[in-house]
Design a protein that fits this description.
It is a single chain. With about 325 residues, this protein is an all-alpha fold. It folds into two domains: about 1-80, no CATH class; about 140-320, Substrate Binding Domain Of Dnak, Chain:A, Domain 2. It is built from nine helices and two strands, in the order H-H-H-H-E-E-H-H-H-H-H. Helix 5 (about 135-160) runs antiparallel to helix 9 and helix 7 packs antiparallel against helix 9 (about 245-320). The protein starts with a helix and ends with a helix. Residues about 35-45 have low confidence and may be disordered.
Length: about 325
């Protein structure tokens, strides 16, 4: 270990004595801080210490002392010193009070700015004025649709219940043309319903007349049958005595059978006519129910739209 230390110090000494650009400042510092000592200034206990001292250059020892002092100083400084950590990043400072983002629930064109930069404002204070042209137009359109739906609702209500057309006074007052149009539609719908019902009623009346004729034929056929049957019953006993011929009896039997056939035919005809009458009645009911159902569907839709427009008109009124 001592041999290795001697060799290391010898190399340091050789490097130091070269007096190059690196060692010159260190040499000058050592000359000022640590004065040189001569051989006579050193007292030795024995010749062995002297020999070891002579093998280790004095300047190298000075350098080692300086390095040791520096290291100890750095260690002490590192133990107690506080180093600030700096983190770099890009950003901007936005104050939370002085700068505020202005938001509006209702968009539009700004027609006037009521404050200027640097003014102090408070909550509820108007800052800008929005052009109300679009809002007024939307409100008027809403009101027009509302009146139209009111008139339509009244028309459909009258058609559904079979009553008269009687819309709210505001419809006739604010839009007489709309009132006239809805009244015309009301009359047209009633005429259409009446036309469909009249066709079915006419068919039913025609079938009822046919039924009356068929019943009359049946009654006549029954009378004919009764008369022929009585005549046949009265003449049959006379056949044995020869008072009537067999041919006469056959003729009477033919008349009875013919009358019976007329009765059966008229009964079948009456059955068909009654079925036709029932069909005509069902057709009348179906026409009326189909018409009422269609009207009620439109009435429900109109009422829902009126409710929606009523809600939206509140918001539109606030914008104006």
């Amino acid at each position: 270990m001592s041999e290795w230390l001697f060799k290391f110090l010898g190399r340091v000494q050789a490097f130091y004595e070269q007096r190059n650009w690196f060692t010159k400042p260190i040499y000058a510092l050592l000359e000022k801080v640590i004065p040189s000592k001569t051989q006579e200034d050193i007292s030795w206990d024995d010749e062995t210490d002297l020999l070891l001292h002579e093998q280790i250059p004095v300047r190298a020892k000075k350098l080692l002392y300086l390095i040791a002092v520096i290291l100890i100083t750095l260690i002490i400084w590192a133990s107690f010193a506080k180093v600030d950590e700096v983190t770099r990043g890009e950003g901007r400072v936005i104050p939370s009070k002085q700068v505020q983002i202005i938001q509006s629930l209702d968009g539009g064109i700004v027609s006037a700015i009521l404050v200027k930069e640097g003014d102090t404002v408070v909550a509820g204070m108007p800052l800008v004025r929005i052009d109300e042209t679009r809002a007024v137009s939307s409100l008027r359109e809403n009101q027009s649709q509302y009146l139209s739906l009111l008139a339509k609702q009244s028309r459909l209500q009258a058609l559904a219940t079979g009553g008269s057309f009687d819309p709210p006074p505001e419809v006739k007052k604010n839009d007489p043309e709309l009132y006239a149009q809805e009244y015309a539609l009301y009359q047209s719908s009633r005429d259409e319903l009446s036309s469909g019902l009249n066709i079915s009623r006419d068919q039913m009346e025609q079938r009822e007349k046919e039924l009356v004729e068929a019943q009359f034929k049946k009654d006549l056929a029954e009378k004919t049958y009764e008369s022929a049957a009585k005549e046949l019953a009265a003449n049959k006993p006379l056949l044995a005595s020869g008072a009537v011929s067999e041919i006469d009896i056959l003729k009477l039997e033919r008349e009875v059978n013919r009358a019976r056939g007329d009765i059966d035919q008229t009964l079948a005809q009456i059955s068909r006519i009654q079925a036709a009458i029932n069909e005509a009645r069902r057709k009348i009911t179906e026409v009326e129910q189909t018409f009422r159902s269609k009207v009620r569907t439109e009435l429900t839709d109109a009422s829902a739209k009126i409710s929606s427009l009523t809600e939206s008109s509140v918001g539109l009124s606030d914008k104006v």
